[in-house]
Design a protein that fits this description.
Length: about 300
């Protein structure tokens, strides 16, 4: 176990051969087993003793419309990766159309007030079709951090930080990274009402057809000491800072924030319009993930 200034390594997995996806056709498939390419903190089964809900969620649909798999990396059969695919949107229980695949990492015991995540990401060439989407893209979530959750009325002071891919113009353009933070409260009729607290848009281009490491850092705090940062490092290139934000990372009215207890480390969630655009071009929404690592009480560069 890594401790002291380097933080505590909570979990790591590269989805290697001793890891198995079970319940493929169910609403909440999960990974079991241990990635034996790592010597410690590598068991999905033991992790669930500390984080009770670690499984995938789609909010409806079936495997003809979306799925998650553990597969051989397409260009390297000696490496296993996690594969998300959305073929088309579907009608969820709310009667709205969804396009979602996400890992839920929920019920963290004690909460994380400061933590880091690192994961390798690959967007195949087909995802480059999004550069020609005929509008801006301001909703394509790839990770989300809840402090506190916003879908239960008995949990006050809802708040989230959302990391996504964006398209900055309606003209053909490169994809970039977008980031925002929102308070949430319930209205009298029981609906969620989000209020934007801050948002950021980066000019750093999203790599297509090349593996890159995505490193996120979260520290709970107010407008003076809350922190959220993101860096990427494409294979063979130097690390780039995408965001380095000092601002609220909890609800602005919360008098006693207690840390992150739920987040989505690997997520693909977007509008029906974006999903249907890709389908019209004979493409699917796809993301490959590898080498997920999560640390508590760790800072960038430490």
């Amino acid at each position: 176990m890594q401790t002291a200034k380097n933080g505590e390594l909570i979990f790591q997995s590269g989805f290697e051969s001793n890891c198995k996806l079970v319940g493929f056709e169910s609403a909440n498939p999960k990974i079991i087993g241990s990635d034996l390419s790592f010597s410690d903190r590598n068991s999905w089964d033991i992790l669930r003793g500390e984080v009770p809900i670690v499984y995938f969620n789609f909010t409806g649909g079936d495997t003809t419309k979306r799925f998650v798999k553990i597969i051989d990396e397409p260009t390297n059969p000696n490496n296993k990766v996690l594969y998300y695919k959305i073929i088309q949107p579907w009608v969820a229980e709310s009667n709205s159309e969804k396009a979602r695949v996400q890992l839920e990492y929920y019920g963290i015991k004690g909460g994380y007030k400061e933590f880091m995540q690192s994961v390798r990401v690959f967007l195949p060439q087909g995802m480059g079709e999004l550069k020609a989407y005929p509008s801006k893209i301001n909703w394509f979530t790839i990770a989300e951090f809840w402090n506190n959750i916003t879908w239960r009325k008995d949990v006050p002071y809802g708040f989230r930080v959302t990391l996504g891919l964006g398209k900055p113009t309606s003209d053909k353009s490169e994809l970039n990274f977008i980031l925002d933070a929102q308070d949430c409260e319930f209205t009298a009729d029981g609906k969620q009402q989000y209020t934007n607290i801050w948002n950021k848009e980066s000019e750093v281009k999203v790599p297509i057809g090349k593996w890159f490491t995505l490193e996120t850092y979260f520290k709970e705090g107010n407008q003076n000491n809350g922190k959220f940062s993101l860096s990427i490092q494409a294979d063979g290139e130097s690390k780039k800072t995408v965001f380095d934000v000092t601002n609220f990372t909890h609800n602005t009215k919360d008098p006693n924030p207690t840390g992150i207890t739920e987040f989505n480390p690997m997520k693909m969630y977007t509008s029906k319009e974006v999903a249907n655009f890709m389908k019209s071009k004979g493409k699917s929404l796809e993301i490959y993930w590898d080498d997920l690592k999560i640390w508590k009480d760790k800072q960038p560069g430490k």
